[in-house]
Amino acid sequence: MSARWTTAVLDPQITGGLAVARSPEGFLVDDNGALFPRDWLKRQDLDVLCEHGIGHFDGQPVFLLELRSATDVPGCSWRGLRAFMLEGDSDTYKVLGYAAQIGTWAREHRFCGSCGQAMTQIRWERAMYCQPCDLRSYPRISPSMIVLVTRGDEILLARSPRFVTGVYSTLAGFAEPGESAEDCLVREVREEVAVEVQNIQYIGSQCWPFPHSMMLGFHAEYAGGEIVMQPDEIEDAKWFSVHDLPPLPAGRSIARYLIDLYVARRLGCDIPAFPS
Ligand SMILES: NC(=O)C1=CN([C@@H]2O[C@H](COP(=O)(O)OP(=O)(O)OC[C@H]3O[C@@H](n4cnc5c(N)ncnc54)[C@H](O)[C@@H]3O)[C@@H](O)[C@H]2O)C=CC1
Ligand SMILES: [Mg+2]
Ligand SMILES: [Zn+2]
């Protein structure tokens, strides 16, 4: 959330306000951005799957129209969330990041996971409900650990085959049932590079709406082992000097913050601001 944006469960029966439209192609945008007058948007020929009231932006109610498919709207185009993360202002990115997670959840929870019947939208909390099962499904958040492993002036970075060419990043992975955050971190580092760590320190967290990760960021010191890369997951992993770093992840990512923070401390530079 930000000073301009707060989340809320709003009843779609009320009229007016602002709205965003999200399809599998991304968010609808025109020259003014992704937030449209809602009444105008609802007059367009959109393939609406469902509508959710998601919060207030500058005091105005905001709704999400989750669409089955992207249709042509004159003067508009479709833009993925990643582009807003890379280039958009942080207030808009917060609104759209939240809208994307609610849209993903709404799309994937139309039917009860227990009995398979259609679920209904609860008006007063963010949940889908199955009456026969008395079961509520809330938006999914997936805790993921992300860690910068360091050894004096060196930092351990790796490449996944999914990354942009040349970019190296910190190690990350999803928590499994039964694990603490620290257990997960130790396991992920072992699995991905076969290295042991010590002095694990929590740094901060970040919502990562691709599609529903909650990144918990840590710093850890190297404790032993030689790098052995996990087949398929890790394309390359090595120690880099803080004086000679490869291309790094996007400025808004906690991965980049963990790297910038350590490098700044090591070189005695100004501490970077936490990404918003
Ligand atoms: N904000 C940031 O700075 C960064 C965020 N990330 C995010 O962290 C997350 C984890 O990173 P990876 O190294 O790719 O994960 P990972 O090392 O756990 O490997 C990904 C694999 O985990 C499995 N998986 C996918 N979704 C899952 C879920 N919800 N729960 C459990 N397992 C799941 C799949 O087999 C997938 O191939 C991803 O969402 C990624 O986008 C990763 C690096 C930087
Ligand atoms: Mg990983
Ligand atoms: Zn059910």
Automatic annotation (TrEMBL):
<dbReference type="GO" id="GO:0110153">
    <property type="term" value="F:RNA NAD-cap (NMN-forming) hydrolase activity"/>
</dbReference>
<dbReference type="GO" id="GO:0005829">
    <property type="term" value="C:cytosol"/>
</dbReference>
<feature type="binding site">
    <location>
        <position position="172"/>
    </location>
    <ligand>
        <name>a divalent metal cation 1</name>
    </ligand>
</feature>
<dbReference type="GO" id="GO:0035529">
    <property type="term" value="F:NADH pyrophosphatase activity"/>
</dbReference>
<keyword id="KW-0520">NAD</keyword>
<feature type="binding site">
    <location>
        <position position="115"/>
    </location>
    <ligand>
        <name>Zn(2+)</name>
    </ligand>
</feature>
<feature type="binding site">
    <location>
        <position position="192"/>
    </location>
    <ligand>
        <name>a divalent metal cation 1</name>
    </ligand>
</feature>
<comment type="function">
    <text>mRNA decapping enzyme that specifically removes the nicotinamide adenine dinucleotide (NAD) cap from a subset of mRNAs by hydrolyzing the diphosphate linkage to produce nicotinamide mononucleotide (NMN) and 5' monophosphate mRNA. The NAD-cap is present at the 5'-end of some mRNAs and stabilizes RNA against 5'-processing. Has preference for mRNAs with a 5'-end purine. Catalyzes the hydrolysis of a broad range of dinucleotide pyrophosphates.</text>
</comment>
<feature type="short sequence motif" description="Nudix box">
    <location>
        <begin position="173"/>
        <end position="194"/>
    </location>
</feature>
<feature type="binding site">
    <location>
        <position position="192"/>
    </location>
    <ligand>
        <name>a divalent metal cation 3</name>
    </ligand>
</feature>
<feature type="binding site">
    <location>
        <position position="82"/>
    </location>
    <ligand>
        <name>substrate</name>
    </ligand>
</feature>
<protein>
    <recommendedName>
        <fullName>NAD-capped RNA hydrolase NudC</fullName>
        <ecNumber>3.6.1.-</ecNumber>
        <ecNumber>3.6.1.22</ecNumber>
    </recommendedName>
</protein>
<keyword id="KW-0862">Zinc</keyword>
<keyword id="KW-0378">Hydrolase</keyword>
<feature type="binding site">
    <location>
        <position position="188"/>
    </location>
    <ligand>
        <name>a divalent metal cation 3</name>
    </ligand>
</feature>
<dbReference type="GO" id="GO:0000287">
    <property type="term" value="F:magnesium ion binding"/>
</dbReference>
<keyword id="KW-0479">Metal-binding</keyword>
<feature type="binding site">
    <location>
        <position position="125"/>
    </location>
    <ligand>
        <name>substrate</name>
    </ligand>
</feature>
<feature type="binding site">
    <location>
        <position position="130"/>
    </location>
    <ligand>
        <name>Zn(2+)</name>
    </ligand>
</feature>
<dbReference type="InterPro" id="IPR000086">
    <property type="entry name" value="NUDIX_hydrolase_dom"/>
</dbReference>
<feature type="binding site">
    <location>
        <position position="133"/>
    </location>
    <ligand>
        <name>Zn(2+)</name>
    </ligand>
</feature>
<dbReference type="Pfam" id="PF09296">
    <property type="entry name" value="NUDIX-like"/>
</dbReference>
<dbReference type="InterPro" id="IPR050241">
    <property type="entry name" value="NAD-cap_RNA_hydrolase_NudC"/>
</dbReference>
<dbReference type="GO" id="GO:0000210">
    <property type="term" value="F:NAD+ diphosphatase activity"/>
</dbReference>
<comment type="subunit">
    <text>Homodimer.</text>
</comment>
<dbReference type="InterPro" id="IPR015797">
    <property type="entry name" value="NUDIX_hydrolase-like_dom_sf"/>
</dbReference>
<dbReference type="InterPro" id="IPR022925">
    <property type="entry name" value="RNA_Hydrolase_NudC"/>
</dbReference>
<keyword id="KW-0464">Manganese</keyword>
<dbReference type="GO" id="GO:0019677">
    <property type="term" value="P:NAD+ catabolic process"/>
</dbReference>
<dbReference type="InterPro" id="IPR015376">
    <property type="entry name" value="Znr_NADH_PPase"/>
</dbReference>
<comment type="similarity">
    <text>Belongs to the Nudix hydrolase family. NudC subfamily.</text>
</comment>
<dbReference type="InterPro" id="IPR015375">
    <property type="entry name" value="NADH_PPase-like_N"/>
</dbReference>
<feature type="binding site">
    <location>
        <position position="233"/>
    </location>
    <ligand>
        <name>a divalent metal cation 1</name>
    </ligand>
</feature>
<dbReference type="GO" id="GO:0006742">
    <property type="term" value="P:NADP+ catabolic process"/>
</dbReference>
<dbReference type="Pfam" id="PF09297">
    <property type="entry name" value="Zn_ribbon_NUD"/>
</dbReference>
<feature type="binding site">
    <location>
        <position position="138"/>
    </location>
    <ligand>
        <name>substrate</name>
    </ligand>
</feature>
<feature type="domain" description="Nudix hydrolase">
    <location>
        <begin position="139"/>
        <end position="262"/>
    </location>
</feature>
<dbReference type="GO" id="GO:0030145">
    <property type="term" value="F:manganese ion binding"/>
</dbReference>
<feature type="binding site">
    <location>
        <position position="112"/>
    </location>
    <ligand>
        <name>Zn(2+)</name>
    </ligand>
</feature>
<feature type="binding site">
    <location>
        <position position="188"/>
    </location>
    <ligand>
        <name>a divalent metal cation 2</name>
    </ligand>
</feature>
<keyword id="KW-0460">Magnesium</keyword>
<feature type="binding site">
    <location>
        <position position="233"/>
    </location>
    <ligand>
        <name>a divalent metal cation 3</name>
    </ligand>
</feature>
